[in-house]
Amino acid sequence: MLSPKSAELVEATLPAVGAAIGEISRLFYQRLFAEHPVLLRVLFNRGNQADGTQARALAGSVAAFASGLLAGQQPDAMLRRIAHKHVSVGVTAGQYAVVHEHLLAAVGDVLHVTPEIAAAWSEVYWLMADTLIGLERFLPRGQQDYKVIARFQETEDVVTFVVRPVTGPVPLNTPGQYVSVQVPLSDGARQIRQYSLSGRTDDALQFSVKRDGEVSRYLHDCAPVGSTLRLSRPAGDVTLRPGDGPVLFASAGIGCTPMISMLAELAAIGSPRQVIVVHGDRDQFSHPFRAELAQLVAKIEDAQAHVFYELPVGEWPAGRTGLADLRGVPVPANTTAYLCGPVPFLRAMRAQLLAAGVTDIHYEVFGPDVVSAG
């Protein structure tokens, strides 16, 4: 908990910091990369830096953590998500001090705060950092080389890769998790991206990649069968929870990858649970795992799929055109819901679920978590 004096100062300055947090985070990254340019080349996602997504996520997470401290509660889901992402890309405990130095300097440059206020926000930062370091200490980390043993063209712009460790067994993994893939780019940078597991066997992992961004383009163009890829251990906390109540998988676009993995798990064990699948895509030809979705739903006794296409090709059921929509889909209030897709989709699905009385909601977002961060 914050010390009483720091809590008083943070509460008094939170509106000002919140209003300027976007500018603070942008300046922070400018300072960080000016002094440590290697971090942008081998750790941080250059695309998320260019469009400001990472800055918004950082800003929102710090503000959300500070607000939670003042309210006497921690945003546990957000912290777990950040911890898994950090371990997946190789963030170390020592790097938190580097972030602290440049983040507090950015706060001072933007707001010209007094030393007492700077010390209060430093306390907020280290409470958050120490919590994350503690969480990350118990998560499996590390990278190893994998051989591409097969690849399949799912759609025009989605390829599935099946990979096997060059040495040793496949690490423990759970449906819903993701791996980080690091690739060498033409300018010498080694960029990292996360891809959800879309399947697995005892001796191989499977992940699927939409052609979107420099790392994904590299994988599409430069990772044939027989090539070697550098992968992290599987990570991620949005995994299939045990239980016997209804479950909902809602996805849009390539967000179907963790959903198809969890759905396959339920089919494999002959689950008696009620399963509701909702997916939205542009049309039938851009829908990854379209045939597999139908096959898996058919294997589960109490399962149904609701697929929405914005521009369907040919005949398609009335009421299933346009964006994915839960209105008209019966969803029991005791449902456990899993969501994955673009941020607007996640927010729309969450709002509709809450309106239906569903509160057990878990989601995966590709890239920085601007949803938890507000």
Automatic annotation (TrEMBL):
Keyword Repeat among UniProt keywords: no
Keyword Cell wall biogenesis/degradation assigned: no
Catalytic activity as recorded in UniProt: 2 nitric oxide + NADPH + 2 O2 = 2 nitrate + NADP(+) + H(+); 2 nitric oxide + NADH + 2 O2 = 2 nitrate + NAD(+) + H(+)
SUPFAM superfamilies in the record: Ferredoxin reductase-like, C-terminal NADP-linked domain, Globin-like, Riboflavin synthase domain-like
Keywords linked to the UniProt accession: Heme, Iron, Metal-binding, NAD, Oxygen transport, Transport
Record organism: Lentzea kristufekii
A Pfam family that the UniProt record links to this protein: Globin
FAD-binding FR-type domain segment(s): 141-241
Enzyme Commission no: 1.14.12.17
Family designation: Belongs to the globin family.
Protein name per UniProt: nitric oxide dioxygenase
InterPro entries named among the record's database cross-references: FAD-bd_FR_type, FNR_nucleotide-bd, Globin, Globin-like_sf, Globin/Proto, OxRdtase_FAD/NAD-bd, Riboflavin_synthase-like_b-brl
Globin domain ranges (all copies): 1-137
